[in-house]
Amino acid sequence: MATSSPNASERLIRNISDTALWVAIYRARESERPDAIFHDPYARRLAGERGEQIAQQMESRVSHAWPYIARTYRFDQIIREQVRQGTDMVINLACGLDTRPYWHELPASLQWVEVDLPGMIDYKEEVLRDEQPRCELQRIRLDLSDVASRRKLFQELGNQARRALIISEGLLVYLTADEVLALGRDLYAQSGFHDWAVDLCSPGLLRMLQKELPALSEAGSPLKFGPAEGPDFFTAAGWKPAQVFSMIKTAARLKRLPSLGLKIAALLPESNAKQGSRPWGGVIHLTRI
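-> structure tokens emitted (289 positions)
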């Protein structure tokens, strides 16, 4: 997974793995602030030069940092709370360049499982080869679209876990509704999979992002998932929302909104139910029905 400078004929984002470099830059920039919300000491190294180039070019039109900071904060919050409540395994689907096992305060006995494409895992292991995680870390090279293989993996992990937390940060938006339902049902089939943390956008926000981020479609990774049902979409797969965190309200609380317009929008009341055409994004903590 190279981080060299793109040439003139090269796409800004070549494939879905490049989005991990892009998002890592936002974690790096936040970590370097004097008032940082979190400190990921590995993000800058993992993002590399190419991650910075992608972020700079993507920001030429719209500032994208604040929702990623809010998303990271809320996922951190859910992880810490569930570990306090007895989670014995965290399964990070499409883990990308996430490094929480290295810097979160985690019990040494916690099992943390990262699942992603072979190229992503290979790159990450190379960059972090001299670092030591704070818990039991296992990495699995797997394309999650391979349904038979993921079901086999889920069964193996389900047999090991008493109370597992699944996290799928930044994954579902690239799937169709049917694919999300199928994934949710495969997870629900394992009784040891107790909680699931996801991020979600409304149909209105999905259309906005599709317009603002054409590079994703051009790279063959279009944004697809923004259910009209909102967080209740997951009930059909056996999961119910336990907590719903608005991205814009979280960012306002953290003082990370970049414009007056967004700050005003954050003051408006909102519903956690169906959002329809209204642009809305959130982090959802799901539990088994």
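The chain has a mean pLDDT of 92.
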